[in-house]
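A brief tutorial aside. Many learners find it easier to grasp structure tokens once they have seen a single protein encoded end to end. The record that follows does exactly this for PTS fructose transporter subunit IIB. Read the sequence first, then the structure, and try to relate runs of similar tokens to stretches of the chain.
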Amino acid sequence: MKIVGVSACTIGIAHTYLAQQKLEDAAKAAGDDIKVETQGTIGIENELSQEDIAAADIVILAVDIKIANEERFEGKKVVKVSTDTAIKSPNKLIAKLHEIAGK
């Protein structure tokens, strides 16, 4: 399954990058392709392209704040959780994404 996502926390430092890493590790362990954009204090990194989004089966938003360019996910299956959820239960979250995407 192909997953794209965004992580962003209120301060834009630790939780943003922890959530990204946890999601990437859990998805790879499940055999998925994943790309997670971070929107932290230093701006957008690992930015998702329109091709990345178009090819994705599902979108995960691990965010605690309003993110930039959320409208680009319109029409996709989107799951929104807090960064804490992504950090504390990444494997359960990836399993839930499989259920929702039907894959």
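Self-check: Residues 14-29 form the longest helix (16 residues). If you spotted this yourself, you are ready for the next section.
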